[in-house]
Every structure is written in structure tokens, then in C-alpha cells.
Design a protein that fits this description.
- By secondary structure, this protein is mostly helical.
- The chain has one domain.
- Helix content is 75%, strand content 0%.
- Helix 3 packs across helix 10 and helix 10 runs antiparallel to helix 11.
- It starts with 15 loop residues before the first helix and ends with a helix.
Length: 320
């Protein structure tokens, strides 16, 4: 099966060296590398998101994300697959999923670090499953309920009994109340799930995935930059730290690693292997984040952090 058969494409496939690299990868390894890309991106975002404030960090980062996705959609030639009448749904998806979802997630990251935020983000899977049952009459099986329970239990273990902040700096330090950080991460997961559900009818009608993603990102970015003061006030992201020398590089790197590398690898995996296995392996980000963080901090994560992360992956596999 060619990747275009699924309606997915990424400009990275135009670069011969990456195409050759993907040609020798198994789809399982590509899925794991996608998860690794997202974990690495969150580690890069940890320090600047705390210093700049989650909302401000997200606003600047979304400029890079929007440009990358617009270029990808243009190269893919998918603009004619989206009907003008679908713009309202795409706008709702972008506002809920990115303006609310991403801002809330980076606000959470600036308060409780990438590991806890990443764990709480996995709540979007049971939220999306519940939303699909309510709005699209999708059937929830017993395994779906069991998977949701495992995800929630794993999150509780990892958040409550996770790593101490001593020696782990920006990756584990809690700014203010843990409850407030958990609240913003849950809002972020809910926003991501809601945004995905809002975009589902457009994608089901044949809208190109990258084009829909680009429009969502562009609309959300415009909304973010039209309400910067209010967004900072709502999230209490009032840090006035100026951008320093390497901030733009970190912002661009975080966007590139997550949106170009991560997405390319996942789409390759989806096009060349079993969809369920690819999705489950790509959902191992909370587990892969632990050894990467251990390398960065030179401190081994607590046992409950590992257990919680493994339970969320098992729970996600039961949901799919």
C-alpha cells in the first residue's frame, strides 16, 4: 500500500535521504520513533515553556507549526479536498483542539513538567472514545471500559507517586498547586479530544488530513495572536521573561521534531503496516519519555512513574 492511498502525505518524503531511511525501517520501528519524536519535543519545550509561560510559548510555537503544515498541505495538493462549507467545523476544531487544548497543555507543562503533562494527555483517548459513542453512536466494548480504567489508574500512579523534584529541575518541579496543573492538563486533553471529534466529519467526507491540520493550526494561531493579553490572563501566564538567544531555535525544533518528523514517521507506519499496532506503538510516548528524561537529569524515574506509564499504554491498546 502506498501512503497516498490513505490520503496521507508529508513533504518530508520529497527529501531523498529521508525517503531512503524510511525505506529500510519497519513500520513498528517507525511508530516507536514517532513516539520518541514527541517525547523529545516535549523535553525541548520544558525549559522555555516554564520561563516564557505556557500560553506565550504556545503562541510563538504555533507560528512555526502553521508554516510547516501549510507547506506540507500545499506540496500535497490537498486544498481542493476541503469544501468551503466545512470551514466552520474546521474552525471549531482548531479553536477547541489547539487554542484551548494546546494552550492548556503547555500551561500545564509550565506548571508540572512534561512527564506529568504527557501522562495526563493520554486522557484524550478515553475522552475521544466517550465522545464518539455520544455524538457518532460508536459502540464502546468491555475492553474500551477496561482500557479507560487502566489509563486513569496509571495516570493517578504516575502523577501522585512520580519523581521528586530534587535534582530534576524543570522536568519535575511543580510551580504552585499540583491540582491547578492537573486541571490544565485535563482541559488540554479534553480540548484535544473535542477538536478531533469536530474535525471527524470533514475527514470522513474525504478532506485531506494535512490540509485540515493546516487550516486548524492557522485559525487557532490567528485566534491566539488576536487575544494574547486575555489568554495570558486566563491561564495566569504572566511571565514577562524576554526571548533569549536559543529560544527561537528551541521553539522551531520542538515544532519540527513533533510535526514534521513525528508525523512523517507515524504516517509511514500507518501506510505500511497494521493500523492498530502502529497507533499503540506510537502511544508509548509516556514510557519513552522516562529514559530520555533520565538521561537529561541523570536521575532514574521512580518505579511508580514506570508502572503508571506502562498501564496507560496497555489501556490505550485496549481502547483501540
Amino acid at each position: 500500500m502506498n501512503i497516498k492511498d490513505l490520503g496521507f502525505y508529508c513533504p518530508a518524503f520529497h527529501f531523498s535521504f529521508l525517503h531512503a531511511l524510511l525505506g529500510i525501517l519497519s513500520y513498528q520501528l517507525a511508530s516507536l520513533l514517532a513516539a520518541t519524536s514527541w517525547a523529545l519535543s516535549s523535553l525541548i519545550a520544558a525549559e522555555p515553556s516554564r520561563r516564557l509561560g505556557g500560553a506565550r510559548f504556545c503562541r510563538i510555537r504555533m507560528i512555526y507549526v502553521s508554516v510547516m503544515l501549510i507547506v506540507a498541505a500545499t506540496i500535497n495538493g490537498g486544498w481542493n479536498t476541503v469544501d468551503f462549507n466545512d470551514t466552520a467545523l474546521i474552525a471549531i476544531s482548531g479553536i477547541i483542539g489547539i487554542f484551548v487544548g494546546d494552550v492548556a497543555l503547555f500551561t500545564a507543562m509550565s506548571r508540572i513538567g512534561p512527564r506529568r503533562t504527557g501522562m495526563l494527555f493520554t486522557l484524550n483517548a478515553p475522552m475521544a472514545a466517550a465522545g464518539g459513542a455520544v455524538f457518532f453512536n460508536e459502540r464502546l466494548s468491555l475492553s474500551s471500559f477496561a482500557g479507560s480504567a487502566l489509563i486513569i489508574f496509571g495516570i493517578i500512579l504516575a502523577v501522585v507517586y512520580g519523581n521528586p523534584s530534587d535534582g530534576t529541575g524543570v522536568f519535575e518541579r511543580i510551580e504552585g498547586s499540583l491540582f491547578v496543573g492537573v486541571f490544565w492538563a485535563a482541559i488540554g486533553a479534553l480540548g484535544q479530544a473535542g477538536g478531533a471529534l469536530a474535525a471527524k466529519p470533514v475527514l470522513d467526507e474525504g478532506g485531506d488530513t494535512l490540509t485540515v491540520a493546516a487550516l486548524r493550526a492557522l485559525i487557532a494561531t490567528l485566534v491566539m495572536w488576536s487575544l494574547p493579553t486575555k489568554t495570558d490572563k486566563w491561564t495566569r501566564s504572566l511571565v514577562k521573561s524576554p526571548l533569549v538567544k536559543n529560544d527561537q531555535l528551541k521553539l522551531a525544533s520542538s515544532a519540527f521534531i513533533a510535526m514534521v518528523c513525528g508525523m512523517t514517521l507515524l504516517l509511514y507506519a500507518l501506510a505500511n503496516g497494521d493500523t492498530g499496532i502502529a497507533v499503540v506503538l506510537s502511544a508509548t510516548t509516556p514510557v519513552l519519555l522516562l529514559p530520555l528524561q533520565a538521561v537529561a537529569t541523570k536521575k532514574m524515574p521512580a518505579p511508580f512513574a514506570w508502572l503508571g506509564a506502562v498501564l496507560t499504554v496497555i489501556g490505550t491498546s485496549l481502547l483501540i
